[in-house]
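Why Periplasmic binding protein? Reviewers of the renewal asked for a concrete example.
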Amino acid sequence: MMKTLRSIILFYVLVFFGFNVSPTVSDCSYPIGAQIQPSYNPGFTVFYQNTYKIVNNTRTNEVYILYCSASAPAPNVTGVSSAKYFQVPVKNVATLDIPTVTFLELMNVYSSIKYVNNTASITSPCLQKNIENKSIQNFNSSNSNDINVIFSNPTQSYNDNKTVNVNIGDDLTPLQKLEWVKFFSLFYDKEAVVTKTFASLQSIYLCNTKNLANISIVNKKTIAWVSYDSNSNQFEVKRDKYHAQLIKDAGAYSTELSVSTVNINELHSIINNAYIVIDESQSIASFDAWQRTFGYYPGQSDVNIPDFITYRRVYRVNKHVNFDGYLDWSESSAARPDLAIQDLIAIQYPTYQSSYITKWLYIFSNNDSPILLTSNNCVNPNQTQTIGNCSVINFTGDSSSTNSTVNNGLYGSKKLPPIAEAMIITFSILAGLAGFAVGAWLVLVIRRKHQERFIELKDEPEVPEVQMSNVTEPTNTSV
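Here is what the prediction returned.
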């Protein structure tokens, strides 16, 4: 914390008092229209000079001087001895940080990627095609001379004067993560393009958030986002900024807890009443194994099976994977909060966008198989990331059904909210009472008709009674 504070103070001192820049021959500039600024405090700042920009990465305590002049030397900015200098726009890069890939795809500069940390981990179909064509390879230290910048993260061991460490962690909200597309645009001089891209994705995210704001309290769902660590034998319920904000913006409640790591008894008390569970336990392959690990397997003593198992509402983010089993969620979700929020809405309210197909979430409790992403899925190499749209609507939740479950096709069967179930039960009781009342009325009417008919018969003329003693049996005259 102190290092970050000192970095911020130093940055502003330099901005306002400490710059001593050697004269340069200007063959480029950054006019106001080509500048960009973060809006959500994502962990970096930028200060523009005429021919260069000073970027302060407060999350990793690094400062970068990005200069655009091709015929002049890098500016001599005194007082920033630890700054790293990059001539921009960069042409060839290495991406050792997995989420960086999708941010570069959003800017349509992914062809600049020449090296990655592990080619087997790439899920992007068009990058897989470049890997097959040998235009992307695994990085090693000897490749440093071939590239302009190495986008890495603090978990990677490699670090030199070309390394830019990014830390797009779950302690950032969805829109704070998205804003890192602006950070990467600074290295490509793509600020004008990214301003529009960011605005579009932000607008879609906020539009969906607004549409879900009218869900009544009684109809709101609770979502528990969990994982299991086989090494520590501990369960985790996600409560970081990213997951909590995403769940909230999707119109749902997060599970309430004071600590994120729990034992199995604490886990049950936290998630048993959840409407939906999303699991990220990568060490558990099948739903059977998941039920055993999480203590919900049928037949286990003293276990009440919760509704999210009964009604198949256990999901995973593994819908799209590559051949080696790496998740597209890990690579793409940071840069696409617009899709992440729509996924969460879709599994709660299938009628919200009836034609929407989830990007990452699928029903784990159905034992559905993930979808394999290969280079054959690279349909348009010139536009690997497509951006949709959103219209503001007055959505108050899925309509009630006369059945206690709603079959929503892709998303499985969902149990109706308690209030809807109560309404159905009440309606059924009232209908039964109404039927009983109508039946009783008909019985009374019929009885009255029969009584009237009986009285009329008594008033008819009496038929003389035949005395059996006066009846003579006929004589048999046959011979």
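Residues 418-458 form the longest helix (41 residues). This is the kind of structural detail the renewal will allow us to pursue systematically.
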